[in-house]
Amino acid sequence: MAAVGVLICGYGEEDARTIKAFLDKVLDTFVLMVSASPKAETKVIDILRNPQERFEVEETKVLIFLGFSEVQIHMALEGFPKEGGLKRPIFCSLTAQNREWPLRELVAHLEEEHRRWTGKKE
Length: 122
Prior knowledge:
It is built from 4 helices and 4 strands. The chain is α/β, with parallel strands linked by helices. It has a 4-stranded mixed β-sheet, with helices on both faces. The model has no long low-confidence stretch (mean pLDDT about 90).
């Protein structure tokens, strides 16, 4: 089985650990977790090359799937934990294009897509 992981942005350490525990359990595998806080100007690929364990709460929450199969993505989306008021993130997968973007640009792009998809005018 190929290794899987997530790049998360916008969650504090306790919420990040909750997400990791959920993913480890639902996927029945060890899920690598990389924090993107506070790396707004850094390219996504560089964040992945130099992982850190610093977690900061931000308004926008993002979770990027790394190496997930379609089935694993579906399992993560369907069962994402709601207990404790955990805010659902904007989900995406790592692509050849977005891995070269600065995190700030990727988050802005995802927020715009999310607004269009949900019909919110924010």
